[in-house]
Amino acid sequence: MIFRAYAVAYLLFLYAPIILLPIFAFNDGTVIAFPLQGFTTRWFVQMWTEPGLGPAVKNSLIIAVSTAVISTMLGVLAARASTRYRFPGKGPVMGLIMLPLVLPEIIVAVSLLVVLLGIGVPLSILTIILGHVLMTTPFAIAILSSAFQGLDRSLEEAAHDLGETPVSAFRLVILPLVMPGIISSLLISFTLSLDEFIIAFFLGGTQVTLPVYIFSQFRFPASVPVIMALGTILVALSVLLLTIAEYYRRRGIARSGAKDTGGFL
């Protein structure tokens, strides 16, 4: 009974801000407090008239799409190598690749900032993409490793017996089987990049992403209700993408016959 009450209290503490976000987004008052002043949708309308929102959304979409594609491509190669082949130093190499999962993000951001400035690379959208790829590639590898581990090696051997080269067998046989994992990796990487703040804040220079724009607007009390409306849309989009990613992840596990070790939702 005690553990159940603790679990309920913990979940309420964890998700209460997300629940309150749309409530205040539809509140007619400019002060984020109870009691509510009435129902309105004007903050959602006013959101599209903000001058800096458009460029921030454009930058975030460019970064998120680029990050998702690059990290998934790297994830496919790394997951394939780690599940199919044995090579010297495999454990340390994979551990080094997965290290960003356990490192504090602000440490990674500051380290990248020092290195990039030290070698003379100007801060731009490209540097944000590099940082996001570093952070999202381990997630892509974790997802794709589950997909590759459940593959039946006899299918690939049968393709070789029928005259396919290793490259064509991988393209025609392996990739279609792991496609649900690839889609899941793309969606997860896109969501993580779209919501990421610390690396974008340190490595963006004059290029503002959506999370950085939201952070900057909290300095102006009149803009807070508009940010609540924008946050509501972002939360709904993130939940939708994560749900789709989890669906494809489970579909890939069911297709390959691998054991489900837990999901994202």
From TrEMBL:
It is a multi-pass membrane protein. Gene3D superfamilies: MetI-like (1.10.3720.10). It holds the Pfam family BPD_transp_1. The keyword Cell membrane applies. Residues 57-245 form the ABC transmembrane type-1 domain. Belongs to the binding-protein-dependent transport system permease family. CysTW subfamily. This is ABC transporter permease subunit. The lineage of its organism: Bacteria, Pseudomonadati, Pseudomonadota, Alphaproteobacteria, Rhodobacterales.
